Amino acid sequence: MAKRVLLIEDEANIIEALSFILSRDGFTVHTHEDGTTAMDKIRGQRPDMIILDVMLPGRSGFDILRDLRADPTTRDLPVMMLTARGQNKDKALAEELGVDRFMTKPFANEEVCAQVRALIGS
Amino acid sequence: MNRTGERIRARRMDAGLAQRDLARAVDISASYLNLIEHGKRPAGAALLRRIAATLAVDIGLLERPADPTLVDRLRAASDRLSTIATETVQTEDLVARFPGWAGLITAQALEIRTLEDRLQMMTDRLTYDPDLAKALHGVISAVTAIQSTAAILTGDSKIDADWQARFHSNIHSDARKLADTSRALVAYLDAPDDAERTLLSPLEDREAILATTGFHRPHLETHPAPAPAPVTRPAVAALVTQYDARYADDAQALPLDDFLQAARAADHDPMVLASQTRQPLDRIFRRLASVPPTSHDPDHGLMEIDAAGAVLLLKQVFGFDLTRGGDCPLWPIYTALGQPGRPITAAVVLPGQNAAHLVCHAIAVPVAHPHGPHLPPLVCATMLVRTINAPSGPQTIPVGVACRICARSDCPARREPAMPVLAVGNVASL
Fold first, then answer.
1. Fewer Cβ within 10 Å of end Cβ, chain A: N or C?
2. CA nearest to B211, candidates B322, B287, B290, B282
3. CA-to-CA dists, residue B188 to A20, A114, B168, B200, angstroms
């Protein structure tokens, strides 16, 4: 059974490109664009991993990550942050909150696929 | 008081000479030199020349005080580059003997500080400006989408025609988005024509504009006068408009001719003027500090701060530089800030041999928050400053500038140590 990736991102064309390359790599990709309802989506979907943007409408990716790590049912869910905010302090905050991978935009497609495979396998 | 004597004493101590040694060298008695040093006897020209020669200093250094403003500015310049050891005890010598060089150093230090402030402002802007952050985020997002999509299209894997068309369309829409955002960013960051002015913060820029007429705004007085040239920098224009609106109210409440007449009769005492005119004290302060520079009335400095102590308005007074931050907490304006509504009047003295003596009047006025009584009042403290020639009395408050360049070693309000050289320098006590 294909591994499921939930992509939480609000830029339509980035969603399309990432969905394409991950699907081509054999993953099932679900997407969600809103920060406020992201936790409901995660709990309902129960994906194998999450790709999480930081600047989302309604709620930041950092807040979502904090909730994920505080909830016993999602505490161990692999999370890769993919963000335009590439400052050291952002990376440090993400790591402090328990992120598994931190990648900055713009990214290389191959690198994203490689990191996803490293986190949840093919 | 004859300050020549003080200067002789200071130079003698700099040279490490005992009073009797200098007296012997210039062929007078030690007791007579003592009287000269304490201002009780004048030193004649011939004797002064002998003393200067013995102390190996320029005679002008003994005759004239060094410009205290320039001395303070030089010390501040030295403080800002404290990694370079400067001969701080000789600052006054430098100013007295080489005023041109001292002026150049202070001008360059001011320029460096202005550039640093500008850099900090731009850094803050990049960090905190939400519009800029949003625009940059838009650029990065568009670039990311274009790069990722282009990589898919140019990759080795075959892509069906529908997906190809879709990705081409996406690249086109992202490229347009990128172009629009880039244009908006260039317009946003484009420097205005008066680039030199933007080196200053909007508040400083406003003060520079107001200082050209001594903070007097002739076109807002009852006599007709031509309006000044419009201010091009929007943020500064808004601040000037704000200043002018209040100025117009002040001018209407206290028409210039009547006010000048009353001020001269009251010896420019703001407390008397407030009582006579029944106008708020802060309005009296502002009127006194903005009389026409050609009126031969005393020069007044003005400072306004908010409840956090941030300077909102600063008009310098001749002979001493008021500063924009890190000030000594003993200034009366801070006392007034802690007691809103209560007028504070105090004489203050700066440290140093040629210390400026000033009389300060201050008051803090709370204004109800416009968004409701549940919010804290907006407090503005105003201080009027005037230099005086009177000697220090027992009530005179010893104030300073910033702790790091303040020579008062025993100040209980000190926040941090002074530069070591200054701490051991010669400081005339009160």
1. N
2. B290
3. 36, 39, 30, 18
User: What pTM, to 2 d.p., does this model score?
Assistant: 0.50
Question: Contact B284/B270 with Cβ under 8 angstroms?
Answer: yes
Distance, CA of B143 to CA of B253 (rounded, Å): 60
Q: What is the pLDDT of residues B179-237, one digit of tens each?
A: 888 888 777 776 554 544 455 678 888 988 898 888 999 999 977 778 888 887 888 89
Ramachandran angles phi, psi of A4, nearest 5°: -105, 130
Query: What is the Cα–Cα distance from B184 to B132, expressed in whole angstroms?
Result: 10
Q: What is the rounded CA–CA span in Å between residue B276 and residue B212?
A: 31
Q: Please choose, from the candidates B186, B166, B137, B134, the residue with its C-alpha nearest in 3D space to the C-alpha of residue A105.
A: B137
Distance CA B12, CA B19 (A): 8
Determine which of A7, A9, A11, A55 to mutate to test the interface with B (most B C-beta atoms within 10 Å).
Answer: A11
For A87, the token pair is 């400052």
Chain A and chain B share a number of CB contacts under 8 A equal to: 53
Class of domain A4-120: alpha beta
- Under 8 Å between Cβ of A4 and A48: yes
3-state secondary structure of B338: coil
Residues 45-84 of B with CB under 8 A from A: none
CA A80 to each of CA A6, A83, A112, B256: distance values in angstroms, whole numbers, following the listed order: 10, 10, 9, 70
pLDDT digits (tens, 9 = 90+) for B28-44: 999 999 999 988 888 88
How long, in residues, is chain A? Answer: 122
**CA dist list (Å): A72 to A14, B31, B178:** 30, 90, 41
Q: Indicate yes or no: CB of B149 within 8 angstroms of CB of A84.
A: no
Residue A83 contacts residue A40 (beta carbons within 8 Å): no
- Largest Cα–Cα distance of chain A, in whole Å? 38
CA distance B42 to A92: 71
Chain B residues close to A14, C-beta within 8 Å: 141, 144-145, 148
Structure tokens at A44: 């309902």
d(CA B360, CA B337): 14
Cβ distance of A11 and B157 shorter than 8 Å: no
Q: What type of residue is B193? A: D
Domain boundary assignment for chain A: 4-120
Residue B409's alpha-carbon distances to B9, B326, B369, B420, B422, in angstroms, are 20, 17, 41, 10, 9
- In Å, how far are A94, B285, B360 from B301, measured between CA atoms? 51, 9, 9
